[in-house]
Amino acid sequence: MSLFFLKTPFITNPPHNITYSFIDKWLKQFVFHQKAKDRIMQNTPLKEKTPFWLDPDKRAILYQACTFLMVGLLAYYLISNTIVNLEKQSISSGFGFLTREAAFEIGESTIAYSAADTYGRALLVGALNTLKVSFIGIVLSLIIGVLIGVARLSSNWLFLFFCNCFSGMHCFTKAFHLQDRR
Question: Would you kindly state where each structural domain of the chain is located, as residue ranges?
């Protein structure tokens, strides 16, 4: 016998054409709608529980955790493999080489350097040379850019022709439309 008949004493004998499963389904729907009506009266939203695999927020967290785990495992594999291979070939790692003698010359340097200096000093000389060359390149490109930009404002067709060729534009478009400016 169904729980429906145990909870409702006023129905003792159901009609024979109604099955117990139909009555149970009807009771479940009635109870669900009654709870929904109660929640509406209390002004609280009705939450339907969605499965974990159908909730996009929970799936996103799962995907991020899996990605983080895979990247961590890959990093562990690469680092452990590198350490094992370095030990097999008796190669030391670290920054101890910076204090050893470099034994090579650098052609041009902003600070004093000789072959008897350390690798650390050689790296410092290389960084300073890079900064010097970068600064010179920035200044020269600024000067050339300003000169080309000002020369493009000229009404001289030869300046326009060379400036357009230099800046990568079509060489003849502005040079041959010079008559329109006059």
Answer: 1-48, 51-93, 121-182
CA nearest neighbour of 160 among 137, 23, 170, 73: 170
Length of the chain: 182
Q: What is the pTM of this model?
A: 0.46
Query: Of 152, 140, 143, which is closest to residue 178 (Cα–Cα)?
Result: 152
Element (H, E) at 70: helix 56-88
Neighbours of 136 (CB within 10 A): 10
Q: Are 128 and 109 in contact (CB under 8 A)?
A: yes
Contact 150, 168 (CB under 8 A): no
Each residue's pLDDT tens digit in the chain (182 positions)? 445 444 554 455 555 555 556 656 655 666 666 666 666 556 655 567 778 778 888 899 999 999 999 999 999 999 999 999 999 998 888 888 888 998 889 888 888 898 899 999 999 999 999 999 999 999 999 998 898 888 888 888 888 888 878 776 544 555 555 555 55
